[in-house]
């Protein structure tokens, strides 16, 4: 066949025409032709900033290719949509940075070490992008110690050059510590600490030689001063100017390393104070390693057991109460570290019979007796005791819901009913305080206790109910009877989880409005992250339900505002900024789902095709969908969940155990066979612990996806 002659070109220039799908803001505003690069030709020629911040509503957000600039160093870009440092990264009017999202670039086909598909359309895809962002944005030197790998950097200082604040400033710092720093984790006795400070500032000749137990006391005083310094308001930053928390931590380590003799209560107290300080510095791996030693020292001296001896004339009530306080604070921290890192707890409830601390103020606890209360005012120790009670409930949730062998649907629902009732009773007993009308009328310590307990309660609800978020499929895949009890339970617990997440977002918003959100509030940052994840996941999961787009949009706006609040809570490499990096990937998924819902693109397997690539079945990995399966919902496409046969009614345990699909599924005791809807065999967002671990520990449990070649050996 003869080849037809090529028609003559109409364009004078022989250069091929390049189609540009997106113009920069300046060219778009002036209606000029744009090269679509970063920077574009015109902005480069005029030496003006080239930004791509205008909203893009034409489908998948295209990547912005860098402009080739010979003899010019390559431009370094920040991939996060939130500023890591507000002074270095400009923020748009809506609070998001002027970058194209990382998901705009197609992801290469990947498999894990077991051959599972982990490409763009898999359930783990956004986690992969989040982890890549963490590797790009967070410096993780490969030569960091294994006990702190993945933590925020900590300056190396010589503890020999230690400067103490003047005595009157030290007294102010001690008072600030007990009024503000630890409102519900009060493991110290104020009068006792004040006495130790007096000894610390005593004559040089009296303190030059450390006697038995003195090194632990000195370490403890240093850590109290370090904690108090970082909790000072802006107006009092001049107080304790010589206090360097990193240096004080190093000096405390120096003293504790030189301890001799038997383990003492102060040895545990000092190390527990170090653990809390490390969390405030975004060093959770360091904290976790140190806490292992601290918890075992506590067990070694029997802090987990109640003292049965007769409280005669030689009994020290101050030490007795501090033993209880230290243990329950350590128990609470053990639970939160386990939840955040997805790792087993150290303390086991079956081994514990320690009593709760007495509800008595420090001023009433003397060495030889505990004085009765002289007024009807609420004791400062009421909130710490109830936080310990809440920790016991959380411990049960972690054991029954987040154990290594995932519970079946019925067991999960039973646990939700059991612990939900316990949480309701807990709050009812404390309702007079937690539901007070005007918090500002309370003294500072009570205000802090009010905030911390409310946040801890709502977070406990999030932990308990969030496994049901992915079970609320609504009308997307299967038709269920309206009076189905399992469906009613799913909807009920999903609603409670969403309500708790919204409460956390509201509290954080108020803290930010009033300037009371400190960068050292690790617990608050963790609570906020968990709440935002729940809201984003629900938006994606519910985006196929056309009967409530307005409500989903409301959830998305609240989550985005909470993410903005979190973005300004910490410095580079802090927990807050790591949370934001992970959340940004999930936010983009939620925003995409909402946009598709508004466009009327529903109920089709192509809903996410433009954003996540072809479905897993086209790649030959991780696909277990049966032949003739129903069309995938948005939640199924994102989280790797497979639909049932068209028109099929799942068994009760199938409907209730959707979250049993995780990295390496283990058979549950209730049903040794897979009792969930068919999954891909790789992680999805139902494995909440892996998501938490990814954000706080740097690599989390996804390190099998990436080699260590990407880390800097510095």
UniProtKB/TrEMBL annotation:
Protein name as catalogued: Zn(II)2Cys6 transcription factor
Lineage start: Eukaryota, Fungi, Dikarya, Ascomycota, Pezizomycotina
């Amino acid at each position: 066949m003869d080849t037809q002659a090529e028609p003559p070109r109409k364009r004078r220039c022989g250069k091929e025409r390049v189609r540009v799908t997106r113009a920069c803001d300046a060219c778009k505003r002036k209606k000029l032709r744009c090269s679509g690069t970063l920077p574009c030709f015109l902005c480069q020629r005029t030496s003006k900033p080239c930004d791509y911040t205008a909203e893009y509503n034409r489908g998948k957000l295209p990547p912005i290719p860098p402009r080739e600039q010979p003899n010019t160093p390559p431009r370094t870009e920040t991939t996060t949509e939130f500023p890591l440092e507000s002074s270095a990264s400009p923020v748009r009017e809506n609070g998001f940075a002027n970058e194209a999202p990382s998901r705009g670039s197609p992801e290469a086909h990947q498999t894990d070490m077991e051959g599972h598909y982990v490409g763009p359309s898999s359930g783990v895809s956004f986690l992969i992008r989040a982890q890549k962002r963490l590797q790009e944005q967070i410096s993780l030197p490969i030569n960091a110690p294994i006990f702190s790998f993945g933590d925020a950097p900590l300056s190396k200082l010589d503890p020999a050059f230690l400067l103490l604040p003047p005595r009157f400033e030290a007294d102010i710092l001690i008072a600030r510590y007990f009024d503000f720093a630890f409102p519900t984790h009060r493991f110290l006795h104020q009068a006792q600490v004040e006495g130790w400070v007096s000894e610390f500032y005593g004559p040089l000749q009296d303190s030059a030689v450390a006697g038995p137990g003195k090194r632990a006391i000195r370490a403890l005083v240093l850590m109290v001063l370090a904690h108090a310094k970082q909790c000072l308001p802006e107006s009092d930053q001049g107080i304790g100017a010589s206090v360097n928390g990193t240096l004080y931590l190093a000096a405390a380590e120096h003293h504790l390393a030189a301890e001799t003799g038997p383990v003492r209560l102060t040895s545990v107290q000092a190390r527990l104070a170090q653990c809390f300080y490390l969390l405030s510095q975004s060093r959770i791996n360091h904290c976790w390693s140190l806490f292992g030693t601290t918890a075992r020292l506590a067990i070694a001296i029997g802090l987990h057991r109640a003292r049965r001896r007769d409280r005669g004339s030689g009994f020290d009530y101050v030490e007795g109460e501090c033993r209880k306080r230290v243990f329950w604070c350590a128990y609470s921290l053990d639970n939160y570290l386990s939840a955040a890192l997805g790792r087993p707890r150290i303390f086991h409830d079956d081994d514990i019979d320690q009593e709760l601390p007495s509800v008595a103020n420090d001023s009433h606890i003397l060495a030889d007796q505990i004085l009765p209360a002289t007024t009807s005012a609420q004791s400062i120790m009421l909130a710490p005791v109830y936080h310990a009670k809440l920790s016991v409930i959380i411990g049960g949730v972690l054991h029954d819901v987040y154990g290594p062998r995932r519970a079946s649907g019925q067991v999960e629902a039973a646990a939700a009913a059991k612990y939900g009732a316990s949480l309701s009773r807990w709050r009812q007993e404390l309702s007079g305080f937690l539901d007070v009308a005007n918090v500002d009328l309370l003294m500072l310590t009570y205000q802090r206790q009010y905030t911390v307990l409310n946040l801890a309660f709502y977070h406990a609800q999030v932990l308990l109910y969030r496994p049901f978020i992915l079970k609320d499929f609504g009308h997307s895949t299967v038709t269920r009877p309206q009076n189905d009890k399992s469906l009613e339970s799913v909807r009920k617990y999903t609603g409670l989880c969403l309500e708790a997440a919204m409460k956390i977002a509201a509290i954080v918003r108020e803290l930010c409005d009033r300037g009371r959100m400190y960068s050292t509030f690790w617990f608050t940052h963790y609570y906020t992250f968990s709440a935002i994840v729940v809201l984003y996941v629900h938006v994606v999961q519910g985006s196929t339900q056309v009967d409530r787009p307005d409500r989903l949009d409301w959830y998305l706006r609240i989550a985005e505002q909470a993410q903005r609040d979190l973005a300004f809570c910490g410095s580079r490499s802090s927990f807050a900024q790591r949370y934001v990096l992970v959340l940004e990937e999930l936010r983009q998924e939620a925003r995409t789902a909402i946009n598709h819902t508004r466009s009327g693109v529903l109920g089709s397997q192509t809903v996410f095709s433009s954003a996540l690539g072809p479905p897993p079945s086209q790649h030959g990995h991780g696909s277990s969908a049966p032949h003739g399966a129903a069309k995938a919902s948005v939640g199924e496409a994102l989280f790797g969940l497979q639909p049932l046969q068209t028109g099929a009614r799942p068994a009760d345990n199938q409907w209730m155990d959707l979250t049993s699909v995780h990295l390496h599924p283990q058979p549950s005791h209730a049903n040794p066979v897979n009792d969930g809807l068919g999954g891909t065999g790789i992680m999805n967002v139902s494995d909440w612990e892996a998501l938490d671990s990814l954000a706080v520990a740097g690599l989390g449990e996804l390190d099998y996806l990436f080699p260590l070649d990407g880390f800097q050996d510095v």
